[in-house]
Write a structure and sequence with these properties.
By secondary structure, this protein is α+β, with helices and mostly antiparallel strands. It is built from eleven helices and ten strands. A six-stranded mixed sheet has the order 1-8-7-6-5-3, sandwiched between helices. A hairpin with a 4-residue loop joins strand 7 and strand 8. The structure holds iron/sulfur cluster. Iron/sulfur cluster binds next to helix 3 and helix 11.
């Protein structure tokens, strides 16, 4: 059974203190109790390898069932030039998993823009810019946190001003491009989102940041979680959304991945998020993490979710669901009979052609006094 530990931000040892500092002396830096039996067995490298192998086999059966079902058995090293999926590669990140779980029919109608990385924009760039700005500050001011943290907006603007155009630098290249285009509205929206990300991250994790914390995704000493592909040249890439890692990656798995959410709202259940990120991190790193720490910047809260077999299985199922729906999308596209109506129908572009969605919105209890009731 997965253990979810909500941490009261007002409690001693919560926000402002190193978050995973042991509440009791027996916990290690990743918040794990050494006396407790390892929930996925001691062989955390072997468990990650089994996860890769099992998922590669399952995804092979979905993506190229008649082509080369032996790819998974070869440890994901197979591949052929015929591995393309119509409509482009499928990027399996948390938001794709959330979209599939919310309404698979809508996800299937997403097309190339909905199935892959949607591209940089103010909302998609906020976390990446926030991480990069914080990383630059840490790189410039060693040792960690010895100097006060500037106002988050000033921190972000400094980073933006120092950004120079250079190909293949991800979000930095996009920001440099917006600077060159003098796109002030987009830059202002991005800076605001990034500053909010930094403020929430530091609020929850404390400043100086905890010993052993490594921001992911950039910087001089930054660790990177590369996308995992089930086999060579596979049109499927599983991408971790973790923002940081706590503790060193060792064969004993004594590390946690940190997922920072600026807000708590509309981001699915915490356990599903933890399941997806535990699985994506294990696939990418090759070692199962001990825990996933999920934060909420607006509330100043964090929760620690132990990684066990059930959590990894749930994460693998989320990954498989995305790929399955993507394959169905290639074959059948949008099918209203498969739609799952919910409050999300109010904002859905497909509502006009979706009978179940319209019926749901017209049903009893959806409106109160002319306003949506749920
Ligand atoms: S209108 Fe609702 S049920 Fe229909 S596709 Fe959109 S989200 Fe799904």
């Amino acid at each position: 059974m997965t253990q979810v530990t909500a941490v009261d931000p007002a409690a001693p040892g919560a926000a402002g203190d190193p978050p995973l500092a042991p509440a009791a002396p027996r916990c290690d830096p990743a918040g794990r109790d050494p006396a407790r039996r390892d929930p996925v067995g001691r062989d955390l490298v072997g468990r990650a390898e089994r996860l890769r192998h099992d998922l590669a086999t399952r995804l092979t059966a979905l993506v190229r069932p008649a082509d080369d079902a032996g790819a998974g058995e070869r440890g994901g090293d197979g591949g052929s030039d015929g591995d393309a999926l119509a409509g482009g590669d499928v990027s399996v990140g948390w938001h794709a998993a959330l979209a599939v779980r919310s309404c698979a029919a809508r996800y299937r109608a997403g097309g190339e823009e909905g199935w892959g990385f949607p591209g940089w924009s103010a909302p998609t760039a906020a976390a990446a810019v926030g991480r990069a700005a914080l990383h630059r500050h840490l790189d410039d001011d060693p040792p960690l946190g010895i100097h006060p943290l500037p106002h988050p907006l000033a921190l972000v603007k400094d980073w933006m001003r120092a950004t120079r155009p250079a190909p293949d630098r991800g979000v930095a290249e996009w920001v440099a491009d917006r600077l060159e285009a003098r796109d002030a509205p987009t830059l202002a929206a991005t800076a605001a989102g990034a500053a909010r990300w930094v403020a929430g991250f530091v609020r929850v994790l404390g400043w100086p940041l905890p010993d052993g914390l490594a921001l992911l995704g950039g910087g001089r000493d930054g660790a990177v979680l590369y996308p995992w592909r089930p086999w060579k040249r596979a049109p499927v890439a599983v991408r971790s959304g973790a923002d940081a890692r706590l503790g060193r990656v060792t064969g004993s798995g004594d590390f946690a991945v940190v997922v920072h959410r600026p807000t708590t709202g509309a981001d699915g259940t915490l356990r599903d998020r933890a399941a997806f990120e535990a699985t994506a991190a294990a696939l990418s790193i090759g070692v199962v993490p001990a825990r996933v720490v999920v934060t909420a910047g607006d509330a100043g809260e964090r929760a620690r979710v132990d990684v066990d077999e059930a959590l990894l299985d749930a994460g693998a199922a989320l990954v498989e669901d995305v790929v399955r729906q993507r394959v169905i999308a290639t074959e059948r596209g949008f099918a209203a009979e498969d739609a799952t109506p919910s409050a999300a129908c109010r904002r859905c572009d497909l509502l006009a052609g979706c009978g179940p969605g319209r019926a749901w919105l017209d049903g009893p209890g959806r409106w109160r006094g002319g306003l949506p009731s749920r």
